[in-house]
Amino acid sequence: MNKTKTRYIVLDTETTGLNPEEGHRVIEIGCIEVISRKITGNRFHVYLNPDRDIDEGAVAVHGLSAQFLADKPRFPDVRDDFLRFVQGGELVIHNAPFDVGFLNAELARSGETRTLGDHCAITDTLVMARKKHPGQRNTLDALCKRYDIDNAHRELHGALLDAELLADVFLAMTGGQSSLMLEMEADTGTPTTSAEQNSPRPLRNYPALAVIRATPDEEATHRQRLEAIGKASGGRCMWPAEG
């Protein structure tokens, strides 16, 4: 029987400021597709003209200027392509309420009556990380360091770059491993324009999880232990010794 493979879309955005309710806008969207623990090379990436000023604090974070964005498309121009890309998948986002709030504001502004959650499921890796590493720093940079993922090239935030790093972090967190051997990819450092969205990228194969089976001696010891538990509990052991 064939099982449907979950299609994950790891997503990040950059914005003009911190609050969409104050009129701030999305200026970059980056999405990376992951299927069967593989970064497939299928992606969506676009810069957007926000038709407004960008807060100085935001520019200091991502380095995107109004001048650079002046000739880029506006969100309504790419909305349908974006929704087709994420439709039916499961979005993986770090601190999802921030990005989802901005994207829902853009969708509403463009005339879309449904929210992002109506098009796809949403998983927040910040929530996952806080449960897995309580009391520790769980920023993207901290998680990269924890899982031995190289982020030395991350001098500024960028939606596509951060989505790529988050994809590696997500696979490491869900794989139960502290590090993964990743293939290195060339990066020209040239900003990708809207015309280059969904361009192919090299396929990255992540190792299958190791299966370590018990030896015959270990199985015998295990059965003896279960028999002892069964006798001590009056036959109420949850796991039978035979089999």
Verbal overview:
The protein is of the alpha/beta class and 243 residues long. It has two domains: 7-208, Ribonuclease H-like superfamily/Ribonuclease H (Nucleotidyltransferase, domain 5); 213-243. The protein has helices at 56-62, 66-69, 75-86, 96-109, 116-119, 125-132, 140-146, 159-175, 216-232; strands at 7-15, 26-35, 38-47, 90-93, 121-124, 204-205. The chain has a six-stranded mixed sheet with strand order 5-4-1-2-3-6.
What's this, in brief?
This protein is α/β, with parallel strands linked by helices and 243 residues long. It has 9 helices and 6 strands.
The fraction of residues in strands falls at 15-25%
DSSP strand count:
6
Annotation field: number of helices: 9
Q: Portion of residues in helices?
A: 25-40%
Number of domains: 2
What name is given to the CATH topology of the largest domain? Answer: Nucleotidyltransferase, domain 5
- The CA-CA distance between the termini, in Å, is 25 Å
- Main β-sheet, in a few words? 6 strands, mixed
Query: Unreliable runs, pLDDT <50, ≥5 residues?
Result: 176-203
Structural class: alpha/beta
Largest sheet: spatial strand order: 5-4-1-2-3-6
Under CATH, the homologous superfamily of the largest domain reads Ribonuclease H-like superfamily/Ribonuclease H
Question: Helix-strand pattern, N to C?
Answer: EEEHHHEHHEHHHEH
Specify the overall morphology: elongated
CATH architecture term of the largest domain: 2-Layer Sandwich
Instruction: Give the C-alpha Rg.
Output: 23 Å
CATH hierarchy class name of the largest domain: Alpha Beta
**Mean pLDDT rating:** 83
